[in-house]
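Explain this protein:
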Amino acid sequence: MTEDTRQRLDFDDRTGEQPVVASSQGRALAANTGVPLSLAWIDGVRVNTSAVERRTTTLVARRTVKKEWQIAWLLRAITCMDLTTLSGDDTEERVRRLCAKAAHPVSDRVMAALGLRDLPVQVAAVCVYHLFVETARRALEGTNIRVAAVSTGFPAGLNAFEERLAEIRRSVGAGAHEIDVVITRSQVFRADWERLYDEIAAFKDACGTAHCKVILGTGDLATLRNVARASWVAMMAGADFIKTSTGKESVNATLPVGLVMTRAIREYAERTGMAVGFKPAGGIRTARQSLDWLTLMKEELGRSWLTSHLFRFGASSMLTDIERQLDFHGSGRYSASYHHPLA
Protein backbone atom coordinates (compact mmCIF):
# COMPACT_ATOMS: atom_id res chain seq x y z
CA MET A 1 0.00 0.00 0.00
CA THR A 2 1.37 3.42 -0.98
CA GLU A 3 2.22 6.26 1.40
CA ASP A 4 -0.50 8.28 -0.32
CA THR A 5 -3.05 5.70 0.77
CA ARG A 6 -1.78 5.88 4.34
CA GLN A 7 -2.38 9.63 4.26
CA ARG A 8 -5.94 9.04 3.07
CA LEU A 9 -6.60 7.09 6.26
CA ASP A 10 -5.94 10.26 8.31
CA PHE A 11 -6.03 8.80 11.82
CA ASP A 12 -5.30 12.09 13.60
CA ASP A 13 -8.33 11.62 15.89
CA ARG A 14 -6.52 8.82 17.74
CA THR A 15 -4.54 11.43 19.69
CA GLY A 16 -7.45 11.89 22.07
CA GLU A 17 -7.51 15.65 21.51
CA GLN A 18 -10.75 17.48 20.73
CA PRO A 19 -10.56 18.61 17.08
CA VAL A 20 -11.72 21.92 15.70
CA VAL A 21 -15.09 21.33 14.06
CA ALA A 22 -16.06 23.59 11.16
CA SER A 23 -19.65 24.17 10.12
CA SER A 24 -20.81 24.73 6.58
CA GLN A 25 -20.33 28.44 7.18
CA GLY A 26 -16.67 27.87 8.03
CA ARG A 27 -16.87 28.94 11.67
CA ALA A 28 -15.48 26.92 14.56
CA LEU A 29 -18.04 25.10 16.70
CA ALA A 30 -17.92 24.58 20.45
CA ALA A 31 -18.90 21.53 22.44
CA ASN A 32 -22.59 21.49 23.25
CA THR A 33 -23.53 22.99 26.61
CA GLY A 34 -27.22 23.33 25.83
CA VAL A 35 -29.55 26.30 25.45
CA PRO A 36 -32.85 27.27 27.07
CA LEU A 37 -35.81 25.28 25.78
CA SER A 38 -37.40 26.94 22.74
CA LEU A 39 -40.92 25.69 22.06
CA ALA A 40 -40.93 27.80 18.90
CA TRP A 41 -38.07 25.75 17.49
CA ILE A 42 -39.90 22.52 18.28
CA ASP A 43 -43.23 23.72 16.89
CA GLY A 44 -41.46 24.78 13.70
CA VAL A 45 -40.18 21.28 12.94
CA ARG A 46 -41.52 19.86 9.68
CA VAL A 47 -40.51 16.58 8.01
CA ASN A 48 -41.41 15.57 4.45
CA THR A 49 -41.29 11.79 4.77
CA SER A 50 -41.34 11.04 1.04
CA ALA A 51 -38.51 13.53 0.42
CA VAL A 52 -36.46 11.98 3.24
CA GLU A 53 -36.91 8.48 1.83
CA ARG A 54 -36.06 9.66 -1.68
CA ARG A 55 -32.90 11.41 -0.47
CA THR A 56 -31.59 8.39 1.43
CA THR A 57 -32.31 6.05 -1.48
CA THR A 58 -30.44 8.18 -4.00
CA LEU A 59 -27.65 9.03 -1.56
CA VAL A 60 -26.36 5.48 -1.22
CA ALA A 61 -27.19 4.51 -4.82
CA ARG A 62 -25.02 7.18 -6.44
CA ARG A 63 -22.06 7.09 -4.06
CA THR A 64 -19.51 4.27 -4.31
CA VAL A 65 -16.17 3.78 -2.60
CA LYS A 66 -13.69 1.47 -4.29
CA LYS A 67 -10.28 -0.13 -3.81
CA GLU A 68 -7.85 1.78 -1.56
CA TRP A 69 -10.48 4.36 -0.68
CA GLN A 70 -12.74 1.56 0.54
CA ILE A 71 -9.96 0.26 2.80
CA ALA A 72 -9.57 3.74 4.27
CA TRP A 73 -13.31 4.12 4.89
CA LEU A 74 -13.63 0.69 6.48
CA LEU A 75 -10.76 1.41 8.84
CA ARG A 76 -12.36 4.75 9.64
CA ALA A 77 -15.58 2.91 10.51
CA ILE A 78 -13.66 0.75 12.99
CA THR A 79 -12.21 3.79 14.76
CA CYS A 80 -15.75 5.19 15.16
CA MET A 81 -17.17 2.01 16.66
CA ASP A 82 -18.54 1.44 20.15
CA LEU A 83 -17.82 -2.26 20.64
CA THR A 84 -20.73 -3.43 22.77
CA THR A 85 -21.90 -6.34 24.88
CA LEU A 86 -25.31 -5.91 26.52
CA SER A 87 -26.54 -9.45 27.00
CA GLY A 88 -28.15 -11.04 30.01
CA ASP A 89 -25.38 -13.65 30.13
CA ASP A 90 -22.45 -11.19 30.10
CA THR A 91 -19.48 -12.11 32.28
CA GLU A 92 -16.28 -10.37 33.31
CA GLU A 93 -14.28 -12.71 31.08
CA ARG A 94 -16.43 -11.84 28.06
CA VAL A 95 -15.91 -8.14 28.73
CA ARG A 96 -12.14 -8.62 29.02
CA ARG A 97 -12.08 -10.51 25.70
CA LEU A 98 -14.13 -7.76 24.08
CA CYS A 99 -11.69 -5.15 25.38
CA ALA A 100 -8.80 -7.12 23.90
CA LYS A 101 -10.58 -7.10 20.54
CA ALA A 102 -11.27 -3.37 20.90
CA ALA A 103 -7.56 -2.66 21.31
CA HIS A 104 -6.63 -4.96 18.42
CA PRO A 105 -9.68 -5.08 16.10
CA VAL A 106 -7.92 -6.28 12.94
CA SER A 107 -5.49 -9.22 13.00
CA ASP A 108 -1.77 -8.69 12.34
CA ARG A 109 -2.04 -10.99 9.33
CA VAL A 110 -4.69 -8.82 7.66
CA MET A 111 -2.92 -5.54 8.48
CA ALA A 112 0.36 -6.93 7.12
CA ALA A 113 -1.34 -8.01 3.90
CA LEU A 114 -2.64 -4.45 3.51
CA GLY A 115 0.83 -2.99 4.15
CA LEU A 116 -0.46 -1.27 7.28
CA ARG A 117 1.09 -3.31 10.08
CA ASP A 118 2.25 -0.22 11.98
CA LEU A 119 -0.99 1.74 11.68
CA PRO A 120 -2.58 2.23 15.14
CA VAL A 121 -6.19 1.10 14.71
CA GLN A 122 -8.47 0.86 17.74
CA VAL A 123 -12.20 1.22 18.28
CA ALA A 124 -13.53 4.36 19.95
CA ALA A 125 -15.17 2.83 23.04
CA VAL A 126 -16.38 -0.32 24.75
CA CYS A 127 -19.99 -0.14 25.94
CA VAL A 128 -21.17 -2.30 28.85
CA TYR A 129 -23.64 -2.46 31.70
CA HIS A 130 -22.70 -0.64 34.92
CA LEU A 131 -21.68 -3.93 36.58
CA PHE A 132 -18.74 -4.26 34.16
CA VAL A 133 -17.50 -0.66 34.00
CA GLU A 134 -14.58 -1.24 36.34
CA THR A 135 -13.66 -4.49 34.56
CA ALA A 136 -13.57 -2.67 31.21
CA ARG A 137 -11.67 0.29 32.61
CA ARG A 138 -8.91 -1.95 33.96
CA ALA A 139 -8.72 -4.00 30.77
CA LEU A 140 -8.33 -0.84 28.65
CA GLU A 141 -5.64 0.87 30.72
CA GLY A 142 -2.88 2.22 28.51
CA THR A 143 -5.17 2.75 25.51
CA ASN A 144 -7.18 5.72 24.23
CA ILE A 145 -10.34 3.60 24.21
CA ARG A 146 -13.17 5.03 26.26
CA VAL A 147 -15.53 3.13 28.55
CA ALA A 148 -19.23 3.74 27.97
CA ALA A 149 -22.02 2.54 30.25
CA VAL A 150 -25.72 2.22 29.47
CA SER A 151 -27.82 3.75 32.19
CA THR A 152 -31.19 5.17 33.32
CA GLY A 153 -33.04 1.88 33.29
CA PHE A 154 -31.73 0.74 29.90
CA PRO A 155 -33.41 -0.21 27.60
CA ALA A 156 -36.93 0.88 28.65
CA GLY A 157 -35.98 3.94 30.71
CA LEU A 158 -38.90 3.44 33.08
CA ASN A 159 -37.13 3.22 36.44
CA ALA A 160 -37.87 5.81 39.10
CA PHE A 161 -36.22 9.12 38.22
CA GLU A 162 -33.94 9.27 41.28
CA GLU A 163 -32.82 5.69 40.60
CA ARG A 164 -31.84 6.65 37.07
CA LEU A 165 -29.80 9.61 38.28
CA ALA A 166 -28.10 7.45 40.91
CA GLU A 167 -27.23 4.87 38.25
CA ILE A 168 -25.50 7.54 36.17
CA ARG A 169 -23.48 8.77 39.15
CA ARG A 170 -22.42 5.24 40.09
CA SER A 171 -21.14 4.53 36.58
CA VAL A 172 -19.24 7.83 36.43
CA GLY A 173 -17.77 7.05 39.85
CA ALA A 174 -16.66 3.62 38.59
CA GLY A 175 -14.72 5.25 35.77
CA ALA A 176 -17.08 5.48 32.79
CA HIS A 177 -16.10 8.19 30.30
CA GLU A 178 -19.48 8.17 28.54
CA ILE A 179 -23.03 7.44 29.64
CA ASP A 180 -25.72 6.27 27.20
CA VAL A 181 -29.03 7.41 28.73
CA VAL A 182 -32.58 6.49 27.68
CA ILE A 183 -35.39 9.04 27.43
CA THR A 184 -38.95 8.46 28.56
CA ARG A 185 -40.64 7.96 25.17
CA SER A 186 -44.13 8.69 26.49
CA GLN A 187 -43.13 12.33 26.97
CA VAL A 188 -42.63 12.57 23.21
CA PHE A 189 -46.11 11.17 22.54
CA ARG A 190 -47.63 13.68 24.98
CA ALA A 191 -45.54 16.50 23.51
CA ASP A 192 -44.43 17.23 27.07
CA TRP A 193 -41.28 18.96 25.93
CA GLU A 194 -40.62 20.83 29.18
CA ARG A 195 -40.57 17.61 31.17
CA LEU A 196 -38.41 15.82 28.58
CA TYR A 197 -35.99 18.77 28.54
CA ASP A 198 -35.72 18.80 32.34
CA GLU A 199 -35.16 15.04 32.41
CA ILE A 200 -32.30 15.14 29.89
CA ALA A 201 -30.77 18.23 31.50
CA ALA A 202 -30.72 16.37 34.83
CA PHE A 203 -29.05 13.38 33.16
CA LYS A 204 -26.46 15.70 31.64
CA ASP A 205 -25.74 17.28 35.01
CA ALA A 206 -25.38 13.86 36.67
CA CYS A 207 -22.84 12.86 34.00
CA GLY A 208 -20.46 15.59 35.14
CA THR A 209 -17.39 15.46 32.90
CA ALA A 210 -18.53 12.24 31.20
CA HIS A 211 -20.15 12.57 27.78
CA CYS A 212 -23.94 12.23 27.77
CA LYS A 213 -25.22 10.20 24.80
CA VAL A 214 -29.02 10.43 24.62
CA ILE A 215 -30.86 7.41 23.18
CA LEU A 216 -34.15 8.43 21.56
CA GLY A 217 -35.50 4.93 20.85
CA THR A 218 -36.51 6.05 17.36
CA GLY A 219 -38.17 2.74 16.51
CA ASP A 220 -40.74 3.49 19.22
CA LEU A 221 -41.41 7.14 18.27
CA ALA A 222 -43.82 6.35 15.40
CA THR A 223 -43.07 9.33 13.10
CA LEU A 224 -40.04 11.10 11.69
CA ARG A 225 -41.40 14.37 13.04
CA ASN A 226 -41.34 12.93 16.55
CA VAL A 227 -37.74 11.85 15.92
CA ALA A 228 -36.80 15.36 14.81
CA ARG A 229 -38.53 17.08 17.73
CA ALA A 230 -37.01 14.70 20.30
CA SER A 231 -33.60 15.36 18.72
CA TRP A 232 -34.04 19.11 19.17
CA VAL A 233 -35.08 18.77 22.81
CA ALA A 234 -32.12 16.51 23.58
CA MET A 235 -29.66 18.92 21.98
CA MET A 236 -31.12 21.96 23.71
CA ALA A 237 -30.85 20.09 27.02
CA GLY A 238 -27.10 19.61 26.45
CA ALA A 239 -26.68 16.17 24.87
CA ASP A 240 -23.14 15.51 23.65
CA PHE A 241 -24.48 12.84 21.27
CA ILE A 242 -27.93 11.87 20.07
CA LYS A 243 -28.33 8.14 19.42
CA THR A 244 -31.00 6.35 17.42
CA SER A 245 -31.75 3.22 19.41
CA THR A 246 -31.00 0.89 22.28
CA GLY A 247 -30.67 -2.00 19.83
CA LYS A 248 -33.51 -3.73 21.65
CA GLU A 249 -36.41 -2.20 19.68
CA SER A 250 -38.06 -4.07 16.81
CA VAL A 251 -36.88 -1.29 14.46
CA ASN A 252 -33.52 0.32 15.13
CA ALA A 253 -31.20 2.54 13.07
CA THR A 254 -32.46 3.34 9.57
CA LEU A 255 -31.06 5.81 7.05
CA PRO A 256 -34.26 7.95 6.94
CA VAL A 257 -34.08 8.36 10.72
CA GLY A 258 -30.37 9.12 10.39
CA LEU A 259 -31.04 11.80 7.79
CA VAL A 260 -33.63 13.50 10.00
CA MET A 261 -31.31 13.47 13.02
CA THR A 262 -28.24 14.71 11.12
CA ARG A 263 -30.26 17.52 9.54
CA ALA A 264 -31.35 18.54 13.05
CA ILE A 265 -27.71 18.46 14.20
CA ARG A 266 -26.69 20.64 11.25
CA GLU A 267 -29.39 23.23 11.87
CA TYR A 268 -28.69 23.26 15.60
CA ALA A 269 -25.01 23.96 14.86
CA GLU A 270 -25.97 26.80 12.53
CA ARG A 271 -28.26 28.38 15.14
CA THR A 272 -26.13 27.92 18.25
CA GLY A 273 -22.52 27.48 17.13
CA MET A 274 -22.32 24.15 19.01
CA ALA A 275 -21.62 20.66 17.68
CA VAL A 276 -23.52 17.52 18.70
CA GLY A 277 -22.38 14.00 17.84
CA PHE A 278 -24.46 11.27 16.24
CA LYS A 279 -24.62 7.53 16.93
CA PRO A 280 -26.71 5.08 14.89
CA ALA A 281 -27.16 1.81 16.77
CA GLY A 282 -28.94 -1.48 16.19
CA GLY A 283 -29.38 -3.44 12.98
CA ILE A 284 -26.06 -2.33 11.42
CA ARG A 285 -24.24 -5.55 10.61
CA THR A 286 -22.32 -5.28 7.34
CA ALA A 287 -19.37 -3.42 5.90
CA ARG A 288 -21.64 -2.12 3.14
CA GLN A 289 -23.90 -0.52 5.75
CA SER A 290 -20.93 1.17 7.40
CA LEU A 291 -20.07 2.81 4.07
CA ASP A 292 -23.68 3.96 3.67
CA TRP A 293 -23.65 5.64 7.09
CA LEU A 294 -20.26 7.25 6.52
CA THR A 295 -21.55 8.58 3.20
CA LEU A 296 -24.59 10.05 4.95
CA MET A 297 -22.39 11.77 7.53
CA LYS A 298 -19.99 13.20 4.94
CA GLU A 299 -22.80 14.45 2.69
CA GLU A 300 -24.96 15.96 5.45
CA LEU A 301 -22.47 17.15 8.07
CA GLY A 302 -19.09 17.18 6.36
CA ARG A 303 -15.70 15.64 6.96
CA SER A 304 -15.42 17.14 10.44
CA TRP A 305 -18.03 14.67 11.70
CA LEU A 306 -16.12 11.63 10.40
CA THR A 307 -14.17 11.14 13.63
CA SER A 308 -14.96 9.34 16.85
CA HIS A 309 -15.38 12.70 18.61
CA LEU A 310 -18.64 13.29 16.73
CA PHE A 311 -19.67 9.98 15.16
CA ARG A 312 -20.06 6.48 16.56
CA PHE A 313 -21.44 3.17 15.39
CA GLY A 314 -23.28 0.99 17.90
CA ALA A 315 -22.66 -2.13 15.84
CA SER A 316 -20.39 -4.82 17.23
CA SER A 317 -21.32 -7.57 14.77
CA MET A 318 -20.32 -5.25 11.91
CA LEU A 319 -16.67 -5.56 12.89
CA THR A 320 -16.48 -9.19 11.75
CA ASP A 321 -17.75 -8.34 8.26
CA ILE A 322 -15.41 -5.35 7.97
CA GLU A 323 -12.45 -7.53 8.91
CA ARG A 324 -13.50 -10.07 6.27
CA GLN A 325 -13.66 -7.32 3.64
CA LEU A 326 -10.22 -6.04 4.62
CA ASP A 327 -8.90 -9.61 4.43
CA PHE A 328 -10.28 -9.83 0.89
CA HIS A 329 -8.52 -6.59 -0.11
CA GLY A 330 -5.23 -7.99 1.21
CA SER A 331 -5.42 -11.60 0.03
CA GLY A 332 -7.96 -11.61 -2.80
CA ARG A 333 -10.03 -14.25 -1.00
CA TYR A 334 -12.99 -14.10 1.38
CA SER A 335 -12.35 -15.83 4.68
CA ALA A 336 -14.95 -17.51 6.88
CA SER A 337 -16.36 -15.39 9.69
CA TYR A 338 -15.02 -17.79 12.35
CA HIS A 339 -11.51 -16.68 11.39
CA HIS A 340 -12.38 -13.25 12.82
CA PRO A 341 -13.90 -13.83 16.25
CA LEU A 342 -15.36 -10.83 18.02
CA ALA A 343 -14.24 -11.93 21.48
